[in-house]
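Objective 1b. Sequence-to-structure analysis of Cell division protein FtsQ.
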Amino acid sequence: MSWVDVSQRWKLKLQQVDWYLCFGLLFLLFVLLGLSMAAWKLNLVVNDADALPIEAVAIKGERDKTSDEEIQAALRDLMQRSFFSADVNQVQAALEALPWVYQASVRREWPAKLKVYLVEQQVVAHWNGDAWLNIHGQVFDAPKRESVGTLPLLAGPEGQSKLVLTTFRQLSELLKINGFNLHSLSLSPRHAWHASLDNGIMLELGREDKMARIQRFINVYPTLAKQSKSVAKVDLRYDTGLAVGWKNAQEESH
């Protein structure tokens, strides 16, 4: 085969090539490369805390037990990230880990702010000495605050906090409308109830018929109050009666 024949064959093949398709594919390749470069640069900017820093955190919600310093310490590391790379879920988790915070919601606000709404724990009682109960009967640990004030003392086995709080509310309401204030309530491991009033009287309620036994105490108390001695303890664990323990003279002198 001569060089002339080879040349003619190549010319024929070149004429058969779809140049529009080739140029189209080449153009698409350049477009994809350009988009990849743009995405890479955008990722660098988005994750660059110096380029798009979080300039402010706006805190809303009523709070008197969680300080600005505690919030700043909780968010210190997270604030080193950029506005877009900061994970609002992590910010929320960090705030909800603060002892007196019950719930937090976080959202971004363009161009460089995080808006936070905090809900603090609404504490209603002491629990087992050193813990607290919120309005939902949930146990939480937190340092003491002056704004908490005086609270009832509740106690019970693990997992029984909601039952104890519900029972306290029921008994307290019945006592209050009859002029008594319930100071403490505890549930023993054997499910027996013990209560005390703010006047120092101890009430043994047993396992059953708590409301009926409280009503029995209310009915009989006017008679007990007429006695020369002060009531120290009333055992109501009887079907129809009760047993009374009296303060002795020496205790009363103190």
